[in-house]
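Quick one: structure for this chain?
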Amino acid sequence: MYTTLLDTKARAFLAVWEYRSFTKAAEALFITQPAVSQQMHALQQQMGTTLFVIEGRQVVFTVAGEELAALLAAHARNAHAYTHALTQRSHIEPLRFGATRTIGEFTLEPVLSSLMEQERYHCSLFIDNTEVLLQKIDRGEIDFAWIEGAFDKRRYEYRLYSHERFIAITSAEATIEGEISLQSLLESRLFIREHGSGTRAVLEGVLADRGLSLENFAHTTMIDNLNVIKALVGRGLGISFMYEAAARQELAGQTVQEIPIKGWHVVREFNFVFAQGSHHRDKYLEIWEQSLALATT
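Got it. Here's what it folds into:
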């Protein structure tokens, strides 16, 4: 996180907030653990309220502590943006953004092309899962991200990008007669995404709503690449759940087919997400509006 313009107490506080540990924060700041502890308690005394408590080996922040951390993090990001703008000699603006795998690989190409054609931005795109991208926003490593699945909407500013169907797929060669029950799929090999994936989080949530979990499937195989998952499903080696947008090409090419599950009508949001209090809010909203227009054409 960009904290060079913050005082030592604020830098220590943000480091502990990020790592939830005095020791790890000290390592990141290249100072001693007692120095971090001293700065934390000095800031708490200065603020006149409890900002954190120690539970075992973990630092747990109070509501006031979380609010202060969010405020300081926003200040650090904006300070970095100001200093970068002052030193930037080119008319081309750097733009660092992210997208979860489904969005980045299967829906975002028109948006990226439009941004590059404007010759206004020097673009850097990071494809990763929801959890990692939110961490990058927190640290000021990216400006914004298109994210699938659930996130803490109290911590970020966001705008709806689209609604997408979440479906089950199997090989196009599989014989399916009418709608089938979710229970009947539990003996199938299930290909799932890695921890932190928005796709996996959606599946876990939908299963939980039905009193099930991934453990109810007889066989699960974790793969962090959607294209590999789709290829294996197409060969008849198992089933998977994903957004329809991610499987659209394979569905059209008839290498996979949607599994019609009784009572399965799952639609989730794709959102455009950025940090609250950003100095560049208007610019980000302009980009969101452009992406929205391209998504509906």
